[in-house]
Amino acid sequence: MSPTPLDGWTVVDLTTGIPGAYCTKLLADGGAQVVKVEAPEGDPLRRWSASGAAVPPDGDGALFSFLACSKESVVVGPGDLDTVRDLFESADVVVWSPDSSVPALSPRDIHRDHPHLVVTSITPFGLDGPWSDRPATEFTLQAWSGGIIGLGRGDPDRPPVCVGGRAGDWVSGAYAAAATLAARLRGPGELVDFSMLEAHILSLTYHPVTFFDMLDRPWQATRRLNMPGVATAKDGLIALGCATAQQFFDLCAMVGHPEWIDEKNPFSIIQRAGDVAPVIQEWLAGRTVAEIRELATAFRIPNAVVVNGANAPALDHFSERPSFLANPSYGFLQPAPPYRLTPAQLRPPAPAPRLGEHSSVTRMPHRRDPLPFSGLRVLDMTAFWAGPSCTHVLALLGAEVIHLESTTRPDGTRLIAGVPPTVDQWWEMSPIFAGLNTGKKSLTLDFATERGRELLRRLIATCDVVVENYTPRVLDQLGLGYAAVKDLRPDAIMVRMPGFGLDGPWRDHAAFAFVIEDASGLTWLTGHPDQNPVEPYSIGDPNAGVHALNGLLLALEHRRRTGEGLQVEAAMVDAALNVAAEQVIEYSAYGKLLERTGNRGPTAAPQNLYRTADTDEFGGTDSWVAIAVATDEQWEALREALGRPDWATNPDLSTADGRRAHHDGIDERLAVWCRERGAEEIIDRLWSAGVPVGKVLQPHRQGELEQLRHRGFFEELDHPVNGTARYSTWPARFSRGPERLHVRPAPLLGEHNHELLSGLGLTEAEIAALEADGVIGRAPAR
Length: 782
Description:
Elements: E1 10-14, H1 18-29, E2 33-38, H2 62-67, E3 72-75, H3 81-89, E4 93-96, H4 107-113, E5 118-123, H5 138-145, H6 167-186, E6 190-195, H7 196-204, H8 208-215, E7 229-233, E8 236-240, H9 245-254, H10 268-271, H11 273-285, H12 289-298, E9 303-305, H13 316-320, E10 324-326, E11 333-335, E12 340-342, E13 377-381, H14 386-396, E14 400-405, H15 431-436, E15 441-444, H16 450-460, E16 465-468, H17 472-478, H18 482-488, E17 493-496, H19 513-520, H20 540-562, E18 566-569, H21 572-579, H22 581-590, E19 607-611, E20 624-628, H23 632-641, H24 656-661, H25 663-675, H26 679-689, E21 693-695, H27 706-711, E22 714-719, E23 723-728, E24 732-734, H28 753-759, H29 764-772
Parallel strand pairs: 1-2, 1-4, 2-3, 4-5, 5-6, 13-14, 13-16, 14-15, 16-17, 17-18
Antiparallel strand pairs: 6-24, 7-8, 8-9, 10-11, 12-18, 19-20, 20-21, 22-23
Helix pairs in contact: 1-6, 5-7, 6-7, 6-20, 14-20, 19-21, 20-21
């Protein structure tokens, strides 16, 4: 087998919990030697099962055995720092979290004393700032991020719901791995200060601050159920979604109601959802899942099976690819890695280590550039959210990124701002496009024409990286798959981001974020337990983007070492299956199907949302706080903050099991207490006492959080059409800079046509002829 991209890297893992474990698992998959340092009692994940299944005393929990594949374990006692320092001397990277197995060593201490290391710190809010020492859980971070209420998820007559399955923890791990790889690619010696709150913002909300600044209105003022969303068919659950006007028209035709189509107001069906949804649901209830999927696919309406831990491995697409592998220690099923490299290889999973299995470890150095991706030229053939979020990071960190569009098919995010086409330059007014494409250049090129295709080939020959997220058939029809790209540029890296992969029965299915969530299990765990699940409607795209970025960074390291180009296949659904891994693992290992629990969770009790006395900014009562008690000490702190009421002194409540058994009663008491107070009073009292708490934030208010202001998470940019607005950055701060990530606004359509085409050797007359023929342009074709 050829060497893995990170062969020779040594990573010391000082973390506990999912974010650090998943970060270092992705590095281990890439071939790094990951040395997990554990206290004598071992990582708590060794004893963990989300379903409560018993872990044998002589074995490890299934989730740990997945996350620790191919790692090594070294046990270090409380005073034995010399062993850890010896590991540091021969390592390249250290990953640290607040519950570190070596609490005496802070990330700043490690960076100061071992300046050759890249030290990645994964904390809820970052290493400094007014919130840096405040307690938090994944659930309260979802609240603070605006991700619980942000995209209008859920029944407006019920409390809003978090995204299930601790998705924020998993995505934080993926972002932390990408930040670590980017820092190390620049060269040794860096402190990477990673904030989980900021990762939640990027993965659970859709540039709401930029949206509010540019259009002076929030993305959405009220919550609603998606239409049709997840529905009950004759033999199970089916998910259908419409992201474009044409898809809504096709849905109307499919269910036999073409009279609903209003071409003058294409999205009027959403406004009439309350009237038409029961009719659609009745139509779906009379047909099987297979019948509906066949019809919906024929009508090109995005659709998916609603996947869970029990049914995922048997689905034809996942079994044919294959998307699941046997765990090398215990044989249960676990997701295959979230991307595939060709011809380079990832490391095949090896058994997770037994506690202290590796008593000694041995351990190579690189280059230094002002920014990690200085000198890198990237052709960005992506659109909407997933692909641009991958290439955006490259632009923020120094790459020349050329965003390719055409006047006949501009990036779809330019079209979703709700700005009518009667407004001058309406296509330049999308906050979503603006937020995802700062620092990039824009080239319009109609490669449906022979001249456009010829110029595209010439451009590819100048690029180090090509990233695309079309359905596979698009580039197949153009004859521009990886083999063709390699002929044009032998050392090129091509990142392909299809929804369902380059092969398998679903390869050509439409793949929007919600479909990927449905097809991976992310939807299954989101929602109230007495209702059908609801789609997160957010995480599917940015999660795919950050996993594709990880695959691309591995490919860049492989090319640095070998000079060889390669293909990265980063299917959106594979990335989602990995962050939903616990469902298949629990069912395969223990026969336990994880179910929706609303706003409760497996690691904290009580955990829920509680309505406050406040009126929300829209004049309603949708004002909530999130409270999560993750330890017995936090329960004692909550009791004190409440004034030790009689009900809270019940000795049964002193343990997590007891609190979970009495969760309904605790919820009733906390609901009464919170309903009499405003959110600020609740947060001040509980947070100061050490209880994890968060305000369920309207996402366009993210910029008002003092912690984000302290860290400079939002940066202002002036746009030539839209004026000044705030733009989110990235969830990591690098000790070697840059201090500022946004250097110029998102490009106007075709803004760099002349620059880029003259760079290919075209004359002024030739460029003018291309514009006259419609091959290039500066405005959408009429």
